[in-house]
């Protein structure tokens, strides 16, 4: 019988191109040769993540629809119509046979607030029906500004749903939901019994080439520069009745500061005090400067003295060393002279 087969596959090192999910490929395993549509994926220990293309130099998994194959059997795969000199596109082994393989793809759904009431909001344009909302009840959502929330219940039949957030959101916020969507494995099995009377399924690229069709150009798929307007939030205003009940450390305090833009006019007494303080500060700075200069001169004089003492000590050590080695040389020569 036919079932879903999990393969461990790797692109052949001599094949010049990587393999794409959804392109029909011919698999040769044992005595069988058949055409099927593989779905490539990679397991991250939690889920099977779909791959659009196979890795360049790594193994990955593939799900195909074919008759039962003994696990551990080796196979090779190739494309029927090729424009390359080397034909084998991939090789690998069979891992297991099963009736269902869960392969998921990451999706990101976006929506806009329709109504906002405190921490509750009604979100639109994320789903189309209430059935879709029911599938994502309890899912975590988030706004662009970082406010987290949760999907609650559908509101009506047009895809609008009620959501709660940890803070009040603005009408200009964009709400998005990150989730995983299950990819159905394409159940296509085309046995090749004779090379003379077989009809092959063509890839999308081959169909476009035969009909001279251009690759569809979607404006929404183009990368665009992100321009976000800086939001200005109103200051937090605490009601006076509530502030009166707060402890002193939590109350709003008015700190008086000297505004540099405002001209300060001093009277005669304040001006005399300011001048006196300025003179005292000037004398203190001058005294500190002279003290630092004196300390620096003392340090320089001490450094000169230390260098002279070290030079004199080096000269003494060098003289002592020369005297020692001269005596040692004379003592070694004296016994030889006596023997002669």
How does this structure look, described?
- The protein is α+β, with helices and mostly antiparallel strands and 340 residues long.
- The protein contains 4 helices and 15 strands.
- 27% of the residues lie in helices and 29% in strands.
- The protein has a 6-stranded antiparallel barrel.
- The longest helix has 72 residues.
- The N and C termini lie far apart (113 Å).
- The mean pLDDT is 90.
Overall mean pLDDT score?
Answer: 90
Strand order, sheet with most strands: 9-10-13-12-11-14
Cα Rg:
42 Å
**Helical stretch count?**
4
Major sheet size, sense and barrel closure: 6 strands, antiparallel, barrel
Ranges where pLDDT stays below 50 over 5 or more residues in a row are none
Q: Based on DSSP secondary structure assignment, what is the total number of beta strands?
A: 15
What is the rounded distance between the termini? 113 Å
| Overall shape | flat
Helix content: 25-40%
Strand content: 25-35%
């Amino acid at each position: 019988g036919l079932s879903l087969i999990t393969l461990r596959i790797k692109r052949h090192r001599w094949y010049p191109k990587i393999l794409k999910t959804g392109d029909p490929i011919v698999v040769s395993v044992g005595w069988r040769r058949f055409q099927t549509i593989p779905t490539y994926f990679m397991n991250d220990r939690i889920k099977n993540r779909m791959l659009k293309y196979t890795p360049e130099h790594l193994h990955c998994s593939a799900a195909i629809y074919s008759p039962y194959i003994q696990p551990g059997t080796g196979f090779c795969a190739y494309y029927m119509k090729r424009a390359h000199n080397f034909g084998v596109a991939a090789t690998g082994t069979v891992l297991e046979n099963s009736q269902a393989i869960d392969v998921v793809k990451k999706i990101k759904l976006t929506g806009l607030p329709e109504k906002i009431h405190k921490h509750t909001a009604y979100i639109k344009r994320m789903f189309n029906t209430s059935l879709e909302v029911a599938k994502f009840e309890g899912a975590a959502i988030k706004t662009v500004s970082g406010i987290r929330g949760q999907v609650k219940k559908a509101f009506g039949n047009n895809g609008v749903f009620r959501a709660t957030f940890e803070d009040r959101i603005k009408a200009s916020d964009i709400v998005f939901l990150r989730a995983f969507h299950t990819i159905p494995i394409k159940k296509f099995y085309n046995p090749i019994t004779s090379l003379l009377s077989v009809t092959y399924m063509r890839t999308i690229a081959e169909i476009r080439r035969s009909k001279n069709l251009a690759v569809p150009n979607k404006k929404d798929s183009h990368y665009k520069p992100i321009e976000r307007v800086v939001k200005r939030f109103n200051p937090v205003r605490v009601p006076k009745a509530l502030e009166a009940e707060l402890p002193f450390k939590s109350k709003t305090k008015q700190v008086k500061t000297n505004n540099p833009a405002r001209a300060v006019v001093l009277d005669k007494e304040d001006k005399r005090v300011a001048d006196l303080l300025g003179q005292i500060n000037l004398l203190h700075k001058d005294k500190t400067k002279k003290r630092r200069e004196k300390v620096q001169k003392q340090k320089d004089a001490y450094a000169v003295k230390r260098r002279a003492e070290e030079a004199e000590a080096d000269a003494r050590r060098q003289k002592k060393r020369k005297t020692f080695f001269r005596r040692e040389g004379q003592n070694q020569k004296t016994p030889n002279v006596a023997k002669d």
